[in-house]
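Appendix C reproduces, verbatim, an entry submitted by the partner laboratory led by Prof. M.T., so that reviewers can inspect both the input and the predicted structure.
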Amino acid sequence: MYFTDRGIEELDKRRGDEEVTLAWVAERLQEFTDSHPEFETAVERFATWLARLDDPDDE
């Protein structure tokens, strides 16, 4: 199991019943990169991937 799998499983276990907005997630990601700038590129790639997920022009 990858570390990310454990983190995702913990996120689901702890917060899986909550409903949040995408704006809330974006704010949490910004807070995370402010505290951990070494992950800025990974977070940027993840956010870009999510933003373009259903865009047929990016397939």
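The radius of gyration is 13 Å. Additional entries are available on request from the coordinating office.
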